Amino acid sequence: MGVRIEIVLLFSIVGIVVGAFNVKLNTEVKSYVKFSKELEFTHTTFREVDVKHLQAIAYGTHGVRDNSILTIADFVYSTEVIESLVAKKATYIGDTIYLEGDVVFDNNTGYSCKTEQAEYDESTEILNITAPYVATRGRNIVLGDTMMYNTRKEEAYGTVIDAVFYTQKK
Fold first, then answer.
1. The total number of structural domains that make up the chain
2. In a domain, 46, yes or no
3. Is residue 86 part of a domain?
4. Residue 91: what pLDDT?
5. Is residue 95 situated within a structural domain?
6. For residue 155, is it within any domain?
7. ∠ CA 61-63-66 to the nearest 5 degrees?
8. Beta carbons of 130 and 146 less than 8 angstroms apart
């Protein structure tokens, strides 16, 4: 009494067919998130120099460069004419620095400005204040909606201005 080969082959074929129908093929394409972070740093000072002298200094407590956009937290910036430009967050895109949160600008001649949002173009040295601001110089006070300030020429152009100026008596 032996097992016939036809019965063994029949059970084998049935087993293979049943197994083939029970196997699920995964046809989903897995999406992979491409890692694009180029640089990450903490408590770092950047010094921008040319052949002759120091052009600018920037400091941040934490920064990330991702897809050629540099974002710095607790930003402090200074140049030859800017004593300090401080913001909670700064974003470098090209030559422009976008500043957000408690932005404070002080120049070397005593002019100071406070706002929540501004942009500084390093190539033209122009500070564009894009939110309501308070500017002071000594006892003089200027309130306004927006302002463009040329840091090199010390010229300011603003919109919706409310100002108090003290002049010398003659």
1. 1
2. yes
3. yes
4. 92
5. yes
6. yes
7. 175
8. yes
> What does the pLDDT look like over 20-37, one tens digit per residue?
777 776 767 777 666 677
- Tens of pLDDT, residue by residue over 78-96, are 988 889 999 999 999 988 9
The pLDDT of residue 116: 93
Residue with tokens 């009494």: 1
Give the integer Cα–Cα distance in Å for 91 and 119.
9
- How many Cβ atoms from other residues are within 10 Å of residue 149's Cβ? 23
Give the total residue count for the chain. Answer: 170
pLDDT tens sequence across 44-70: 888 888 888 888 888 999 988 888 888
Burial 59-88 (b: 16+ CB within 10 A, else e): bbeebebeeeebbbebbbbbbeebebbbbe
**Res 122: pLDDT:** 87
Sign of CA dihedral 113, 116, 122, 127: negative
Retrieve residue 67's tokens.
């897809």
Q: Vertex 40, ends 125 and 63: CA angle to 5°?
A: 40
CATH number at residue 77: 2.60.450.10
At 101, list the tokens: 């949160």
**At 106, is the secondary structure helix, strand, or coil?**
strand
Domain extent at residue 128: 37-164
